[in-house]
């Protein structure tokens, strides 16, 4: 019988810590049918804007809708690729320059599925989740992040 | 009988209208809502945003059901 | 002036620990022009072979040649993609089922370069590095790993 | 004057010939070396392997320089 999956929280307050990533990786050592993990990490850049230099991004989301959408994306990716595991974590609130704001993690028996699924997940997360980044500048002002 | 809809605004749109939550009389469709909002908040004239009704993305001619939660969504910029 | 890169060691004795991965990630927080990291991890699978079940892989390499080749691949990938950083770690010796044997890590301003470079690096490492895996079985025997 | 070459064997090939290092009189080319080895180690008859001379992959008709380090490389299986 297939496991029934339900929406789960993807949001974490503030930056994602490297230790949390290590813990998540270590949690998979008991799944001995996994041959490859693919991970994407988003890190906040110190971009230079005409209005000033980015020092942090403050993330907000339409949380209920984002979780429903993330679940829909999860299910679609699970249906498309033979994955063992998939994890998505996105920051809310302030994440400073150099800190991590997105952690996408896919695991599969063979590397290709894990890699392709990870790439597609990241693209869909950026395009389809109602999340917004306010780029805080060193001039005390802010600009709204634009995804390209 | 007046129908009320619940507006939620996010990101740059919340900033432009000065609040994240608003109650309005139901203007009928999303297109009509857009006109109402742009009339009431001139800062929205040049702003780009879409709509979700009860958490589903919908286009301008969609009808707004009574009591709906309508979200005003600027372009997503997560990640 | 371009930084002159020289061959560096990619081999680690035994399994790669999640903590070492966390440390490597954390080391990049000062590089504030990075926007995305892509990571691939190889994990040893408990494959069922006709001769028995895999319990570990014992890796050996023609080390001097592998390091020269890894350097050549590194240079080619740096020339092809706008990367900020690239790291490759491969185990030698015994790595047990569920443990990590390969860690490939690319970082770039934008996600696409990091992801594409990581995928290509993993393919080239598997195809071109003189490294061999001896799959140790629960029957005390062994079979030689075959990359597909 | 006898020319000696230094053989290094890896993985399954080292297993089949029973050693990881071997010195041999230079047979001239890689093709000739392959024949010599298959004659001396019947287990290699069915084995697939390539050659590197001084750490560069080379094909059968390549000449082996004096004092070369020649590696016998079964199919790679790293990662």
Automatic annotation (TrEMBL), chains A, C:
EC number: 2.8.1.12
Alphabetized Gene3D superfamilies for the sequence: Molybdopterin biosynthesis MoaE subunit
Reactions catalysed, as given in the entry: 2 [molybdopterin-synthase sulfur-carrier protein]-C-terminal-Gly-aminoethanethioate + cyclic pyranopterin phosphate + H2O = molybdopterin + 2 [molybdopterin-synthase sulfur-carrier protein]-C-terminal Gly-Gly + 2 H(+)
Pathway connected to this protein: Cofactor biosynthesis; molybdopterin biosynthesis
Keywords, comma-separated and alphabetical: Molybdenum cofactor biosynthesis
Keyword Membrane found: no
Pfam families: MoaE (PF02391)
CDD domains hit by this protein: MoaE
Description of how the protein assembles with itself and partners: Heterotetramer of 2 MoaD subunits and 2 MoaE subunits. Also stable as homodimer. The enzyme changes between these two forms during catalysis.
Membership in a protein family: Belongs to the MoaE family.
Protein name, per record: Molybdopterin synthase catalytic subunit
The species this protein was found in: Algoriphagus oliviformis
């Amino acid at each position: 019988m297939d496991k029934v999956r339900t929406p789960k929280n993807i949001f974490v307050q503030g930056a994602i810590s490297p230790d949390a990533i290590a813990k998540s990786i270590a949690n998979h050592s008991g799944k001995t049918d996994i041959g490859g993990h693919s991970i994407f990490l988003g890190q906040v850049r110190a971009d230079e804007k005409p209005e000033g230099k980015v020092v942090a991004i403050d993330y907000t989301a339409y949380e209920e809708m984002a979780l429903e959408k993330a679940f829909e994306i999860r299910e679609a990716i699970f249906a498309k690729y033979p994955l063992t595991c998939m994890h998505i974590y996105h920051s809310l609130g302030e994440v400073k320059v150099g800190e991590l704001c997105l952690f996408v993690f896919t695991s599969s028996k063979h590397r290709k599925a894990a890699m392709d699924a990870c790439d597609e997940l990241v693209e869909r997360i950026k395009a389809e989740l109602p999340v917004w980044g306010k780029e805080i500048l060193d001039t005390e002002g802010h600009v709204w992040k634009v995804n390209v | 009988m007046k129908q009320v809809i619940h507006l939620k605004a996010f990101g740059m749109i919340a900033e432009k209208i000065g609040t994240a939550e608003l109650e309005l009389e139901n203007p009928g469709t999303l297109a009509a809502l857009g006109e109402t909002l742009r009339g009431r908040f001139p800062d929205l004239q040049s702003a780009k945003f879409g709509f979700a009704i009860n958490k589903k993305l919908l286009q301008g001619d969609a009808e707004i059901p009574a009591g709906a939660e309508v979200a005003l969504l600027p372009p997503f910029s997560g990640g």
